[in-house]
Design brief:
This protein is of the alpha/beta class and 303 residues long. The chain has a single domain (5-16, 33-300), classed as Alpha/Beta hydrolase fold, catalytic domain (Rossmann fold), CATH 3.40.50.1820. The protein has helices spanning 5-17, 32-35, 86-99, 118-132, 134-137, 151-166, 200-211, 215-218, 230-234, 250-262, 287-300, and strands at residues 41-50, 53-62, 69-75, 102-107, 139-149, 173-177, 238-246, 267-276. α1 runs antiparallel to α7. The protein is globular and about 50 Å long.
């Protein structure tokens, strides 16, 4: 059921009150070096409609790409509320150039405009679109991967689980950057939950704005991948999990990685001890080391 307008306003007030960014702070100014990443790719924007809502794909084709190159679908974070940002494009261009391939940068409909399952369905559609266009792009359909960060990470994890369940397509890799993989348990009752990095009420507001009162979706494997069965996990592709020392999700992320490994899937997991939640696509200190780990994983993965 959709949230009432009053409840929606209350939750947005919570997000405004608990924001870690000072009110009216200017947008970050990125170094010219980062802006120049955009010159390394040819860009195309594609608009598609899923569940009655338009969303956009920003397709970055590396100028140095070669036939049979990899394709990576990148899903931004922001608590399901925050929009696609300039840094997402810079980061996607960097990945495309370093992999010598193509990055499909996904700008899904946020929970400001639509609740579950719109964003999830759009992410799934975007990966299907990438597979359908491999021949046109000169890319290898055995080298298609998906990755995301924070909210984008749980969306990516859900996409990988659904693909494994349906057999609609076969991913070679999933990249999960510090995602909230359990949206059922209250944040303060999770491991380390009393040592807050993000305010607990902020996390609750993100989840409620996205799922509304659909508790079944919230507890589903696609909405909270920690509740996937071992049989579902066994069919997942090779997995890279990146956690951060300054992130309350680090324990559930690493536990999910260990569960996937326990059923025989190849998993790499690394905690960036000194970094905080959101550091990768926001191009914060430590991002390049993480991005280059992702690049190596994309380049070596194939079905």
């Amino acid at each position: 059921m959709a949230l009432s307008e009053q409840r929606r306003r209350e939750l947005l007030e919570v997000l405004e009150r608990t924001s870690l960014r000072p009110k009216n702070a200017p947008a970050p100014e990125y170094p010219q070096e980062y802006k120049d990443y955009l010159t390394l790719t040819e860009q195309e924007t594609v608009t598609r409609t899923v569940d009655g809502h338009d969303y956009h794909l920003y397709i970055h084709r590396a100028k140095n790409r070669t036939p049979g190159c990899p394709v990576h679908v990148n899903i931004h974070g922001g608590g399901f509320v925050g929009p696609h940002a300039d840094c997402d494009s810079m980061y996607s261009a960097y990945l495309a150039d370093r992999t010598g391939g193509i990055v499909v940068d996904l700008d899904y409909t946020t929970s400001l405009y639509a609740q579950w399952p719109v964003a999830f369905d759009q992410c799934y559609d975007a990966v299907q679109y990438a597979f359908a266009h491999c021949a046109e792009w000169g890319a290898d359909p055995n080298r298609v991967s998906v990755g995301g960060y924070s909210a984008g990470g749980v969306l990516a994890a859900g996409v990988a689980l659904k693909a494994a369940d349906t057999g609609d397509f076969r991913l070679c890799l999933q990249v999960l950057g510090y995602p909230p993989l359990d949206n059922v348990i209250d944040p303060i009752y999770k491991r380390g939950g009393l040592q807050r990095v993000l305010p607990a009420e902020r996390e609750r507001a993100f989840s409620e704005l996205y799922f509304g009162d659909d508790t079944a979706a919230m507890a589903s494997a696609y909405g909270s991948p920690n509740y996937a069965t071992d049989e579902q996990l066994r069919r997942l592709p090779r997995t890279l999990v990146i956690s951060a020392g300054g992130c309350n999700f680090r324990y559930e992320d690493e536990e999910y990685a260990m569960r996937i490994a326990s059923v025989g899937v190849e998993v790499t997991v690394k905690r960036f001890v000194q970094e905080r939640h959101g550091f990768i696509p926001h191009l914060i200190e430590g991002w390049r080391e993480a991005a280059d780990l992702i690049v190596r994983s994309i380049c070596s993965a194939r079905v």
